[in-house]
């Protein structure tokens, strides 16, 4: 008979203390699932506005150093370049263009991109490229170029990048004799850029 009240008293105490003990335990939080995200080369590298200089290589044209303005999106997925060059060596050569790059791979201090670019090249005086044997050469000639290619950027420090590009281009001179060639003017380049971070 004495066992029954003792058992009931134990159940009463357990029912009062169980919620209090449950509240004293820290809540169990489920671990968040990891989602793969694209990241740019190093944290913040190549993002925002940058300036620099590029040397454009093309054996068929008079090549001039170009000023570079570049901008990378905040997500590190792509960057765009604007280029501008001027030279006066026997002829006055002016070129300006734009390039867009999509990052296909990024490492801790480098990235690799595929892109497309377009440029206008204008000159007067002695032609930088050999003109056709027949026909007259205008006093000022406007040539158009479109290239596809790849670019590699290596960040020596988080806001300074060395860059090199290689491409295949379609060149349309003012005389209409278009040519397709390896070594596109605005894609075959080496340069350096400084980013304002």
Helix and strand layout, with pairings?
Elements: H1 3-24, E1 48-56, E2 65-72, E3 78-88, E4 91-106, E5 110-125, E6 140-157, E7 160-172, E8 179-182, E9 189-195
Antiparallel strand pairs: 1-2, 1-9, 2-3, 3-4, 4-5, 5-6, 6-7, 7-8, 7-9
Overview of this protein structure:
The protein is mainly beta. The chain has one domain (48-195): Porin. The chain contains one helix and nine strands. It has one helix at residues 3-24; strands spanning 48-56, 65-72, 78-88, 91-106, 110-125, 140-157, 160-172, 179-182, 189-195. The chain has an eight-stranded antiparallel β-barrel. Strand 1 and strand 2 form a beta hairpin. The radius of gyration is 32 Å and the shape is elongated.
Q: Which regions are unreliable across 5 or more consecutive residues at pLDDT < 50?
A: 33-42
Average pLDDT taken over every residue? 75
Number of strands: 9
- Walk across the major sheet and give the strand order: 1-2-3-4-5-6-7-9
**How many angstroms separate the termini?**
82 Å
CATH overall fold name: Porin
Most strands sheet: 8 strands, antiparallel, barrel
- Per CATH, the architecture is Beta Barrel
* Portion of residues within helices: 10-25%
**Structural class determined from secondary elements:** mainly beta
Number of H/I helices: 1
Shape: elongated
- Output the radius of gyration: 32 Å
CATH class: Mainly Beta
Sheet-strand content, in percent, reads over 45%
Series of secondary-structure elements, N-terminal to C-terminal: HEEEEEEEEE
Total domain modules: 1
